[in-house]
């Protein structure tokens, strides 16, 4: 059975009118501190490498968060000493339009304060500083959103977290994971 020219024209018009209504669905992708990007396989570059430790395997680290409360049971630990010439940072690339950075933070100033500077594509885009201490608080807070930006141009980006950039005091980072859209 052949389609009449009129029916064929109607089907073509209906098909073409629906093409404009097809949209990409945003997807959140996680980059774990250890396992890397679940979509692309990209991993963080930790510099200097000797200043970062896979926290869940560190028996000599002062910070000992509960492994089961960290994303995928892993985190990376860096304590920046009082040396203005040593900058510890974690860098990763991603393609997206939004970024969310999660750390384990501490309420114990003996471990160091929490003092981070964030860069996207080489530009400073934010800071997170917490020098408060509460004797009644739990020693660690998990899944702490320390930075977010949900208005990035959809493009390739380089994200860097730098430790100890604003206070020049002993500071600690317990990087858990990031998510991008």
Number of strands: 12
- Straight-line distance between termini: 48 Å
Give helix and strand order, one letter per element, not per position: HEEEEEEEEEEEE
Approximately what portion of the residues adopt beta-strand conformation? 35-45%
- For CATH, the homologous superfamily is named as Galactose-binding domain-like
* CATH topology annotation: Jelly Rolls
- Largest sheet properties: 7 strands, antiparallel
Put simply, the count of helices is: 1
Average of pLDDT: 85
Any idea of the CATH class? Answer: Mainly Beta
Number of domains: 1
CATH architecture: Sandwich
Residue share in helix: under 10%
Note down, in words, how this protein is organized.
With 181 residues, the protein is mostly beta strands. The chain has one domain: Sandwich (Jelly Rolls). It has 1 helix and 12 strands, in the order αββββββββββββ. The chain has one helix at 5-19, and strands at residues 29-32, 36-37, 45-47, 53-54, 76-80, 88-96, 99-106, 114-120, 123-130, 140-149, 155-163, 171-180. The strands form 2 sheets. Strands 1, 2, 4, 5, 7, 10 and 12 form a 7-stranded antiparallel sheet that branches. A 5-stranded antiparallel sheet has the order 3-6-11-8-9, with no helix packed on it. The chain is elongated, with a radius of gyration of 22 Å. The termini are far apart.
């Amino acid at each position: 059975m052949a389609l009449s020219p009129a029916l064929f024209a109607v089907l073509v018009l209906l098909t073409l009118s629906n093409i404009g209504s097809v949209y990409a669905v945003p997807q959140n992708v996680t980059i774990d501190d250890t396992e890397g990007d679940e979509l692309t396989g990209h991993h963080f570059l930790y510099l200097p490498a000797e200043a970062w430790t896979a926290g869940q395997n560190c028996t000599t680290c002062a910070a000992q968060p509960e492994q089961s409360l960290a994303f995928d049971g892993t985190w990376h630990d860096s304590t920046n000493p009082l040396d203005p010439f040593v900058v510890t940072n974690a860098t990763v690339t991603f393609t997206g339009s939004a970024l969310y950075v999660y750390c384990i933070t501490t309420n114990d100033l003996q471990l160091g304060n929490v003092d981070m500077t964030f860069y996207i594509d080489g530009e400073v885009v934010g800071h997170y500083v917490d020098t408060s201490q509460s004797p009644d608080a739990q020693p660690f807070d998990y899944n702490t959103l320390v930075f977010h930006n949900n208005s990035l141009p959809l493009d390739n980006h380089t994200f860097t977290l730098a430790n100890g950039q604003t206070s020049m005091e002993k500071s600690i980072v317990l990087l858990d994971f990031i998510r991008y859209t």
